[in-house]
Amino acid sequence: MENTPTVRSPAPTAPAAAAGGPGDLRRDGYARYRPEDLGLSLAAHAGDLAQLTAAYADLPADPYAPTTHRYRRYSHAVYLPWTRQLSFAPGAPDTTYGTVTEYWQDGHNPEYPDLRRRLPDIPTALQANALLLHLIHTDLAQVEWVADLRRVPLYVGVHLIKLAVTDRSQVAVSSPDCLHQDGGSRATFTFAHLVSCANVAGGENVIARPECAGNRPEEVPPEALHERFTLREPLDGYAVHDHRVSHYVAPVRLGADPGHGDRRILIIGLAPYAPRL
């Protein structure tokens, strides 16, 4: 079995919300970010971004929904706030994918209620990618104000998701295809970072009140919607404090240019490890 890397980082600095931008994570339960808000220079991280982007090229189709034009890999890591150490957990052996990691949203995903899905792991080589590690630690710094996340080991879920289409009859759909919450602790946070987006139409993100979960955006009153936006540039992103809002991403179709289209997104989920004894 390959050794999984353990990374100790210098104390990160929490990014400021985008100047003039909507939402403040601590105040509003959601926020939007640009690369500069995260202390990122695309030029400085060009090689790391290229490696991260390339990891999406051969993502397996979602094993639980192979006809949705959704592709994904998932792994999780453990973070110790008092030492700032991050260590990826090894996946379970699998005859199809090599290794897999369990992904569970308790009853919050109406398409897979209480199902413990086993998803293909992200490549081991990607676990040392400097850009990925920077994003993880920057996201961690953004939630330091939550006391529950300073005193216990943290669960860090790392999810590569691609919505891809090759002709105009196809629709690529995220899961669940409605406003939703990811579940778990009241100290659960989800960060989304766009890796790339090319030749697709759709993919609008919506942030709404928590009681909107289970509905599509058009099914709830306009005053229940906080923000509607579409991520377009590499490393643009957003974050949600899970129990305080619901969120959604619309399906994508092929854009106007020839060839295929896809939307590549990195999702980083943060939550406290719960005692089991």
From TrEMBL:
Positions of region (Disordered): 1-30
Oxidoreductase as UniProt keyword: yes
GO molecular function, one term: dioxygenase activity
Low complexity bias spans: 10-19
Database matches in InterPro entries: 2OG-Fe_dioxygenase
Superkingdom of origin organism: Bacteria
Sorted UniProt keywords: Dioxygenase, Oxidoreductase
Signal peptide as annotated in the record: none
One Pfam match: 2OG-Fe_Oxy_2
The protein, known as: 2OG-Fe dioxygenase family protein
UniProt source species: Streptomyces buecherae
